Amino acid sequence: MPFLALDGLFYRIVPTARAAHALAPATSPEGRFHHDAQPSLCASSRPDWAEHAIAPYVRDDDPPRVICELRLTGVRVLDLRNPDHCARCGINPALAAVPWLPERARDLPASTWAVSDRARASGADGMIYTARSEPTRWHLVLFRWPGAHLTGHVLPYPLPG
Asked: How many whole angstroms separate alpha carbon 101 and alpha carbon 7?
């Protein structure tokens, strides 16, 4: 299976109290690309893109957050922007853009889960997906992340200016 090998810096926003554990999987049992307590970790290649990614989920009464920098080495991902990757895995990449919360509110399985389940089954460590609001912005969801470590560099959230 052709995967894209990723090496580089990525950014994840977490509550300040969890900054030392920013490589821990998502705490919720389900999200856009995980269900039934599957492990997942979302990150972005730019801090401002990470801000965009979590904006719909941030509430006024949330605890303070920070942007943690992590380095990925040798992570093999399925790239949903690549038609060949999608075709080889039988993935319709348009399903990754379907809003998952309204489906769950109707007690339906999220369409996005069909995408991530196929990506997981392919053996990929994760997948790249584009932002619904701006397709040039992309994010990463990891299913396993042995080649990840925190750099110790932490940025404020929200970013100044």
From this structure: 31
pLDDT in tens, 30-73: 999 999 999 999 999 999 999 999 998 899 999 999 999 999 99
Cα distance between residue 68 and residue 150, in whole Å: 7
Predicted model pTM: 0.95
Measured between alpha carbons, how far is 108 from 19 in angstroms, rounded to an integer? 33
| Cα distance between residue 77 and residue 13, in whole Å | 21
The HSE-up count of residue 43 (CA atoms within 13 Å, CB side) is 29
CA distance 161 to 150: 25
Q: Domains of the chain, with CATH numbers?
A: 4-156 (3.90.175)
Across-strand partners of 140? 43, 128
